[in-house]
Amino acid sequence: MRIDFTPLFRSRFVKIAKRTDKWKGNTENIQRKVLSKLLKKGASTEYGKANGFDKILESDDIYESYTSGVPLVSYEDIRPLVMRMINGERDLLWPGFCRDYAQSSGTSGGKSKFIPVTADSLSGNHYRGGEDAVAHYMRNNPGSKIFSGKGFILGGSFSNTLGIKEGRVHVGDLSATLINRITPLAEIVRVPDKKTALMPDWDRKLPALVEKAGGEYVTNISGVPSWFLTVLRNILKESGKESLKDVWPGLEVFFHGGISFEPYREEYQSITKGLDMKYVETYNASEGFFAVQNDPLDNSMLLIIDRDVFYEFIPENEPDAKPVPAWKTEPGKIYELVVTSSNGLWRYRLGDTVRVIQTDPVKIKIAGRTGAFINAFGEELMDDNAEKGVARASKETGAFIKNFTAAPVYPKKGEKGRHQWLIEWDKEPADLQDFAKALDSALCDLNSDYDAKRKGSIFLGEPEIISAREGLFDDWLRSQGSHKLGGQRKVPRLSNSREIIDCLLKMNRI
Predict the structure, then answer these.
(1) What is the pLDDT of residues 465-501, one digit of tens each?
(2) Strand order in the sheet with 100-104
(3) What is the pTM of this model?
(4) pLDDT tens for each residue of 371-401
(5) Euclidean distance between CA atoms 455 and 453, whole angstroms
(6) Which residues, in sequence order, are bridge partners of residue 287?
(7) Beta strands in 32-111 (DSSP E)
(8) Four-residue CA torsion sign, 316, 320, 324, 329
């Protein structure tokens, strides 16, 4: 007989969710307290001393003193300090020694970013954010039996691309750190075991996941939609079933994030027929757990304002505008997100943009990135990666490119997702397939997240190259009302939607 432990935990989790009812009218007060707490912790660090945190704490208005005296930074500004931390130095961005770093792509200054994941950020933010997701779900679903079985958490792995000699330091996917550092008690209610979850080789890991999870009673799953779809398809294939209802009859919720769920919704509905599935979106980045969907009828997310993150918002398309705090945001506007957090990030520009849906309390939707990108499968391919990759592939194949754009092709039944590149040539390569292979290889070298998704073509297929007719891109620009060709207006190199490329492909057949 299966025992349901949900009633034992329900009151605790519902209480956690209900604390957010008191946020209305209190955003400023809560966020100012968070900022003061972070500055007190950071005052003894090298960064805190250099930026006068002690004096800021003594001022009449800590927020105004902080934002006027401490600069906005991008990752490249703090990369030297982070590398010193990775090599064992203490008290640089956050007190003490930091042993964990989340590897993430997305900058032009290097293949990867390495975001500090301090013990304080794990206990005060990342794990608390996950707790919030479960809490709001349980509050909204009083009939849930989520603790009658296990949670299937799909994670990444560690790597040592830096050749780190400090044995205490771990670098890898954020999910690997979260799984590695989680309390041993959690192992009772999650699958797979830690050893399997952290396997680096997906060719070995995928069948191991199918074997471990397929035989368990799973009630909830957590991860990136694209990654999980591949695993779930393999579980169905191995079991000979058409719906996950016949594998896990108690499956009830998918906690997802990282990329947009919409392109995958129809496929998930197809493989969960017969189940009353719920979907909860989260905003859990390498830099912090920022927001969670707290209302099943509203697909915006509640900004988590009391979990060791202080937020600022830069109005989109206003690069010289002064950032505003959460309590001064305006509904409907898109902002670039800036965070100060317990992982030692001080006024850090993520590169993410969010649309503020409501302001008291603040609810948001992820709008995109500040630059061109494709992140349909968790690959975080950036404009700079694309330019360098195309240049290298052209050199290797003797091709010359006039213009290009790329967008994702989302997976359909039985097909893998891929990137589709539409290229107008000055000199076409002798073999488009050779160009595709060269481009793929270059992007793997330039972008660690792309490389991870391309391993064994498990999650992301080889890029598809389509030749554009002469003058296609100029024709498209003219159709958009641009008469100043040759640099004044450009076709976006990368797009996370197919709106532009589908229009171009249609024009390409004319």
Answers:
(1) 999 999 898 888 778 654 433 334 567 889 988 999 9
(2) 113-116, 100-104, 170-172, 158-159
(3) 0.83
(4) 778 989 988 898 778 888 998 999 999 998 8
(5) 6
(6) none
(7) 100-104
(8) negative
